[in-house]
User: Fold this.
Amino acid sequence: MTGVLAQASADGGEPVWVQALLVGGILLVIASLMTLLRNRKRGAASSTTARDRLDHARADARLKDGQRKDLEAVSIAIEEMARRVGAQLDNKASRVEALLDEAERVIHRLDAATRAAAVAAARAPEAAGPAAPPAIGSGAPPPPSPPPPSPPPAAADALRAEVSRLATEGLDPPAIAARTGEHVGKIELILALARG
Assistant:
């Protein structure tokens, strides 16, 4: 080895160890510069990421703020609609109650009128007094007797029978009305009379 060193010195050049040291130093400087460049790139990349994150956070905040405002507007609209619907329902309920009260008053008046008519009809023959039989030979015809109650027509009997049959089959009044072609109210009346 001393021969190699001596030979490099004899050639007029520097010893090999000096050259090796020089090459090692250059490699060390290059490695340091590359490390420094990598760190700068990482720093630049991380600062860009931080900016991106900040921008994303701001955009998310704007979006959430917009969504919150939209939700508030929707909830306000729903509350207003609920108030309006509630007021309409209250108004309709009060109208229905007023109509029911009026119907009850009419029913009471009709009941009173019916009772008064029945009392008046019962008193009418009494007020006239007992009717004297016409004198024989007076030439006056006897007063007509009231006609006997007429039997219901055959068509009405047939309808009653049909309604009763369909009711025993388990059909409700709207279904019976649809089958017979009559009004539901008439069917309900026939059924009520049959029960009572």
In short: The chain has two domains: 7-104, 154-196. The chain has a mean pLDDT of 80. The chain is about 80% helix and 0% strand. Helices lie at 2-10, 16-128, 154-168, 173-180, 184-195.
